[in-house]
Specification:
CATH class of chain A: Mainly Alpha
Number of strands of chain A: 0
Order of helices and strands of chain B: HHHHHHHHHHHH
Helix content of chain A: over 70%
Number of domains of chain B: 1
Strand content of chain A: under 5%
CATH class of chain B: Mainly Alpha
Distance between the termini of chain A: 41 Å
Number of helices of chain B: 12
Helix content of chain B: over 70%
Largest sheet of chain A: none
Oligomer: heterodimer
CATH architecture of chain A: Orthogonal Bundle
Number of strands of chain B: 0
CATH architecture of chain B: Orthogonal Bundle
Distance between the termini of chain B: 35 Å
Radius of gyration of chain A: 24 Å
Structural class of chain A: mainly alpha
Order of helices and strands of chain A: HHHHHHHHHHHHH
Largest sheet of chain B: none
Structural class of chain B: mainly alpha
C-alpha cells in the first residue's frame, strides 16, 4: 500500500519499476528452483555426496544397454521432427496460402480445422487414433515415423498461428495480383513472391512444430511407440539421474528454440507502419 | 501438453482486415487446379483428425464387437470413476484459480518492462517452454525438487533428521504445485495481450478528472480486464482438465479422468471395459466444448475494448 501511495504521481496501469522488479525476481527464483534442483540432482551420488559419475555413465559401454531405449527414442523423435515439419510446411502452409489467394471464404473453415485440436484434446483424440493406427500399421508398418501424421494434427494450432499472423500482415492478394499482372504463373508466384514474404511465419511454425514433436508423450505412450519422451520415462524407472540429465538438456534446448522464435517474431517489417 | 489459445488471436487479426470482394479472374482450368490443391490437406485432416475424433467419441456407444450399447456409460456409476472426475475437477479448479491470479500479477509487473526488451523475450520464451513443452520433463523437474530424494527432501532431512520428509508428489493433491508450473505461464501468455490493450489515455483521463490509481483500477482497469481474466481462468481449467503427460509420469494408479482414459484404453483384454475409454472421452469432449465456448464468448467480450 505504501508503494501505491508514494507513487501517486504516476497514473495508468503499469506498476512502479521497484514493484515490478520485486514481482519478477520472486517469479524468477520460484521458476528457477526446479531447474536448479534438476542440475543438483544430476550430480548426486547414489549413497550420498556428489559425483560426475552419472554423466560418465552415458559413455560407459557396459551401461549402454540401459540407455538403449532412450537413444532409440531420441533417434525416432528426430526423424519425427523432420516428417512432422514436412507435413506442416508442405500440407498446411500451401493450403493456407492457396485459400488466401483464391478461396478467402474458406479461411474460417481452415481456422476451425486447425484449432479443433484445442477443443478435442490429445487425450481424447488418441482414443480414436488407436483403431486408426491399427489400419495405418497394416498399410505402412508400425515404425515410429508413422506417428508423424498424428503429431502433425496436434501441432496444427501452434503452427497455424504464426503463419496466419504473417499472412494477415503481408496482403497476399495484392502481391498475387501484382505478380500476375506481370505475367507470373501460380507456382512462380508461390515460390518467388509468397514464400519469401512469409519466411518469418514459416520459420516460427517449423520451430514450434519441432518443440511439439520433442515434447509429445501422450500419443507415443497410447500407441506404444518409443520416442524421446517415452524413452525418458522408461529410463527414469531404472536410472533417474540420466533421465533428468536429458530432461534438463531438452528443457534448455526448448528454451533456446523458443527464444529464437521470439526474436524472429519481434523484428517487425518496417514498411508497414 | 496443451496450450491452446494463443491461436485464438490469429483469427481476430484476419477477420479485422475484412475479406475484399472475391475478385477471382482465373480460367476454368486454373480454378480446377486450385481445388485440387486443397485436397491433400483435406484428406489429411479427414484421416487423422476427423476420423479419430469421431471414433473416439462414437466408440463409447459400441461394444468391442460393434453392437450398439449404452453399457459403457455405466462407468459413471462406478465410485472410482466418480472420485476421479472429482479429482480432475478439483485439481483443475485449484490450479486454474491460483494460476490465473499469480499469472495476472506477473502480467501486471511486465507492464512496466519494455515490450520489445530482453526481459519480455525471456519471459515469453520461458512461459512457452513451461506451458507447452514441459509435460514429462516438468514432472522430472519436480522429482528432483520435491521427490523423496529431491532438493527439498535433502534440506528437510538435514534439518529434522533422516526420514523426516515424505514426498507428497505422487498423489493428486501433490500435482498442484507441478500443474501451477504450466498454468501460471499459460496465464502469462494468454492474459498479457489483454493487459497490453489497456490504453495509456484511460490512465491520463482518470488522472485529469482527479482520480487516484485506486480509482483507476476499480473503475477502469478491473472492469475492462474482467472478461479476459475470467476467460483465461476457464482456459486454464480446460488445460489442466485435459492434461495427461505430467500426471502420467508421476502417478501410476488412477486418480484423474485422463489417467482413467489411458487405463481403459490400454486394457483391451478386460472384456466389457475396452470401450469405456470412449465414454470417458465423450464426457471430456462435452466438458471441453462447454469450457471453450465460454472462453470464446468471454474473449469476444474482452475484444470489445481492443479494437478502439
Amino acid at each position: 500500500m505504501t508503494a501505491a501511495r508514494s507513487s501517486s504521481a504516476r497514473f495508468g496501469a503499469a506498476p512502479s519499476k521497484a514493484t515490478a522488479r520485486l514481482i519478477l525476481v520472486i517469479t524468477a527464483i520460484l521458476f528457477l528452483l526446479p531447474i536448479v534442483a534438476m542440475g543438483i540432482f544430476t550430480f548426486r551420488a547414489n549413497g550420498g555426496g556428489y559425483t560426475v559419475g552419472h554423466y560418465l555413465d552415458l559413455f560407459n559401454p557396459a551401461l549402454e544397454f540401459n540407455y538403449d531405449v532412450l537413444f532409440q527414442g531420441i533417434q525416432n523423435s528426430l526423424i519425427l521432427c523432420v516428417i512432422t515439419a514436412a507435413i506442416i510446411l508442405l500440407l498446411m502452409v500451401p493450403t493456407m496460402v492457396l485459400i488466401e489467394m483464391r478461396y478467402p471464404k474458406l479461411r474460417r473453415i481452415m481456422e476451425f480445422i486447425c484449432l479443433v485440436p484445442v477443443t478435442i484434446p490429445t487425450i481424447v483424440l488418441v482414443v480414436g487414433l488407436v483403431p486408426t493406427y491399427s489400419v495405418v500399421a497394416q498399410l505402412l508398418g508400425s515404425d515410429a515415423w508413422t506417428l508423424a501424421f498424428a503429431i502433425g494434427v496436434i501441432a496444427l494450432p501452434y503452427a497455424y498461428r504464426p503463419v496466419a499472423v504473417n499472412i494477415a500482415a503481408v496482403d497476399v492478394r495484392t502481391l498475387t495480383e501484382a505478380a500476375r499482372s506481370l505475367g507470373a504463373g501460380y507456382l512462380s508466384i508461390m515460390w518467388r513472391v509468397i514464400l519469401p514474404n512469409l519466411r518469418r511465419g514459416i520459420i516460427a511454425a517449423a520451430f514450434i512444430t519441432i518443440t511439439v514433436v520433442l515434447g509429445e508423450y501422450t500419443i507415443a505412450t497410447f500407441l506404444g511407440r518409443t520416442t524421446f519422451q517415452t524413452g525418458l520415462v522408461q529410463v527414469e524407472h531404472g536410472d533417474p539421474y540420466v533421465a533428468i540429465i536429458f530432461a534438463l538438456l531438452a528443457l534448455l534446448f526448448g528454451f533456446v528454440i523458443l527464444l529464437i522464435i521470439g526474436r524472429v517474431g519481434s523484428i517487425r517489417p518496417k514498411n508497414k507502419d | 501438453m496443451t496450450s491452446l489459445a494463443q491461436s485464438r488471436g490469429a483469427g481476430e487479426t484476419l477477420r479485422r482486415r475484412g475479406a475484399p470482394a472475391d475478385r477471382r479472374a482465373g480460367s476454368g482450368a486454373g480454378v480446377a487446379a486450385g481445388w485440387i490443391g486443397l485436397v491433400p490437406f483435406g484428406v489429411y485432416a479427414l484421416l487423422f483428425l476427423a476420423i479419430p475424433a469421431v471414433l473416439a467419441i462414437a466408440s463409447g456407444f459400441f461394444t468391442v464387437n460393434g453392437q450398439f450399447t449404452l453399457a459403457n456409460f455405466d462407468t459413471f456409476a462406478d465410485p472410482t470413476t466418480q472420485k476421479d472426475i472429482i479429482g480432475s475437477v478439483g485439481l483443475s479448479a485449484v490450479t486454474a484459480v491460483v494460476g490465473a491470479i499469480a499469472g495476472a500479477i506477473i502480467c501486471y509487473a511486465l507492464l512496466s518492462m519494455r515490450p520489445d526488451g530482453w526481459i519480455r523475450t525471456i519471459v515469453d520464451s520461458a512461459s512457452s517452454v513451461f506451458a507447452q513443452f514441459g509435460g514429462v520433463m516438468l514432472a522430472f523437474a519436480f522429482i528432483a525438487t520435491m521427490g523423496n530424494t529431491g532438493l527439498i527432501g535433502i534440506i528437510i532431512n538435514g534439518l529434522f533428521g533422516d526420514n523426516a520428509y515424505t514426498s507428497p508428489l505422487y498423489t493428486v493433491p501433490g500435482l498442484v504445485p507441478v500443474y501451477l508450473f504450466f498454468q501460471i505461464p499459460l496465464m502469462v501468455l494468454t492474459f498479457m495481450p489483454a493487459m497490453e490493450a489497456l490504453k495509456p489515455a484511460w490512465g491520463e483521463a482518470v488522472a485529469t478528472l482527479g482520480g487516484t490509481r485506486r480509482t483507476y483500477w476499480w473503475r477502469v482497469g478491473i472492469p475492462v480486464l474482467a472478461p479476459a481474466f475470467f476467460g483465461c481462468t476457464i482456459l486454464l481449467f480446460a488445460n489442466s482438465f485435459s492434461s495427461f503427460a505430467t500426471a502420467a509420469a508421476l502417478i501410476s494408479q488412477g486418480g484423474l479422468i485422463s489417467l482413467d482414459i489411458f487405463r481403459a484404453s490400454t486394457s483391451e483384454t478386460v472384456i466389457g471395459h475396452a470401450n469405456e475409454a470412449g465414454s470417458l472421452a465423450l464426457a471430456m469432449v462435452v466438458v471441453m466444448v462447454v469450457l471453450m465456448s465460454a472462453y470464446g464468448a468471454l474473449q469476444r467480450r474482452a475484444a470489445k475494448w481492443g479494437d478502439r
